[in-house]
Specification:
By secondary structure, the chain is of the alpha+beta class. It has 2 domains: about 325 residues, Uncharacterised protein PF07063, DUF1338 (2,3-Dihydroxybiphenyl 1,2-Dioxygenase, domain 1, Roll), CATH 3.10.180.80; about 90 residues, no CATH class. The chain is built from 18 helices and 10 strands. Strands 2-3-4-1-6 form a 5-stranded mixed β-sheet. A 3-stranded mixed β-sheet has the order 5-7-8, sandwiched between helices. The chain has a two-stranded antiparallel sheet with strand order 9-10. Helix 2 crosses helix 11, helix 4 packs across helix 7 and helix 9 runs antiparallel to helix 10. The longest helix has 21 residues.
Length: about 450
């Protein structure tokens, strides 16, 4: 569906597949260090936007039918200086086996209508009235979703109906857009207009995963696809890939019917949807994430002091000075998450194994496998949004920001928003517990 709506997305998928095949040929098994080629090729993250807690709660029910849970809280309002008045979470599977079968996640943003920095009292009232008057998801769709989540399955005919309704809910509507209302919101934020200026929702972008995002960027540019100026996230360097790198082709001007104040319908164009691509790295611990954020600050400082120097060169130099250059150093410093497995080549001479994970790895008893980062970075996500906006929008920073946080989000959707760090920590600790059991080190392994 999305490929039909945004043909450049199909080009993006084709180029991603070609790049992945090239990397696999060049690197062999090393290319699959962070996931099998079949999973990487199939993997997607989508992005959708809704306007109210009620709509977000309905989205949560739809994705629960697929075994996808809200993970992480992202406040994009604070991540960039331009007007991006949304908070977000991501719906995804959380179990390793489920992720292998269903490697999909949907980054879901909600408009922060109550934030006076963006919406004064009059506009907020008008916006709330508009949003309350629309229905994004049919009752039949919600009913089937709840049934699927409760029963863990649907009969084939109902399952097909559920999928049909779900796809329809995210199709780009042909209904004319109220031109004046849309432009009123667009002056505040193009993102606000995309959410609250229409009577439906749609897929904002759909993102394949690529093994070499720098090569992907080059190949897309060669094909005449205009890309945004940068690759968001960590820089390209010789050390281990961590967290997430993202880029996109620029939002395209899509023809849309527009209704004018006199009731006539004219042809217009909206530039809100783009094609994102990502390269995933190793999940960092809280300590590792703190280091990452500190290094971003260093890069910002140096870039502001040296405006003539390419930001990518500055970032690479900072990384090489401060970021550990190997997986072993990341693990030893408690900076990244790994699972641990018994090594087939471990000693068999009857000697007792050491009682620390690091020593077990060093002496060949155990091998460490990096845990892939399955989540998002608010600054990178907001940077992608910002790079595809036609203007900065407006925000009144003299006003206090409305309080939206993870606890608020949990209450709004009526279910726990899971902590990604806790999920990675659990995955790692379970593997260590298994090692301890297998080596008879229960209670001794540190």
């Amino acid at each position: 569906m999305y490929g039909q709506e945004v043909p450049a997305y199909t080009t993006l998928v084709d180029v991603s597949r070609e790049v992945n095949e090239d990397v696999l040929r060049a690197q062999g098994a090393d290319a699959e260090r962070l996931g099998s080629i079949s999973r990487v090729t199939a993997e997607r993250h989508g992005a959708i936007r809704v306007g109210t807690p009620h709509e977000l709660q309905q989205v949560a029910r739809i994705f629960a039918a697929f075994g996808m849970h809200p993970v992480g809280f992202y406040d994009l309002r604070e991540a960039v200086t331009s007007a991006v008045p949304v908070i977000s979470t991501a719906f995804r599977p959380v179990d390793g086996g489920e992720l292998a079968r269903n490697p999909f996640r949907v980054f879901t943003s909600m408009l922060t209508v109550a934030d006076p920095r963006f919406f004064d009292a009059d506009l907020r009232s008008r916006l709330e009235t508009f949003l309350a008057g629309r229905e994004l998801f049919a009752p039949e769709l919600i009913g089937l979703a709840d049934r699927a989540a409760t029963e863990q399955e649907l009969p084939r005919q109902e399952a097909e109906r559920f999928l049909q309704l779900a796809v329809q809910a995210f199709e780009l509507s042909a209904e004319p857009v109220d031109k004046t209302w849309y432009e009123t919101l667009e002056r505040i934020s193009a993102v606000a207009a995309d959410i609250g200026g229409v009577r439906s929702t749609h897929i904002n972008h759909l993102t394949p995963r690529v093994l070499d995002i720098d090569e992907l960027y080059r190949c897309m540019t060669e094909r005449g696809i205009e890309m945004i100026d940068t690759i968001q996230g960590p820089p390209a360097w010789k050390g281990p890939d961590v967290l997430l790198r993202q880029t996109s082709f620029r939002a395209l001007a899509e023809p849309r019917a527009m209704r004018t104040p006199d009731g006539s319908v004219v042809s217009g164009a909206l530039r809100v949807r783009f094609g994102e691509v990502e390269a995933r790295g190793i999940a960092l611990t809280r300590k590792g994430r703190a280091l990452y954020d500190t290094l971003l600050g260093h890069i910002d400082d140096q870039a502001s002091q040296n405006p003539a120097e390419a930001r990518g060169d500055i970032a690479r130099a900072v990384w090489e000075r401060h970021m550990p250059g190997s997986e072993q150093e990341l693990a030893a410093g408690g900076l990244a998450y790994f699972t641990y497995q018994l090594s087939p080549g471990r000693p068999r001479d009857g000697s007792r194994p050491p009682t620390s994970i690091s020593a077990l790895v060093q002496r060949g008893w155990v091998r460490a496998e990096p845990i892939v980062y399955e989540d998002f970075l608010p600054r990178s996500a907001a940077g992608i949004f910002q790079s595809n906006l036609s203007g900065e929008g407006t925000r009144d920073n003299d006003q206090p920001g409305a309080a939206y946080d993870a606890a608020w989000l949990c209450g709004a959707i009526g279910r726990d928003v899971l902590d990604p760090f806790a999920l990675y920590e659990l995955q790692q600790s379970r593997s260590i517990a298994h090692i301890a059991h297998e080596l008879d080190l229960t209670g001794a392994l540190g």
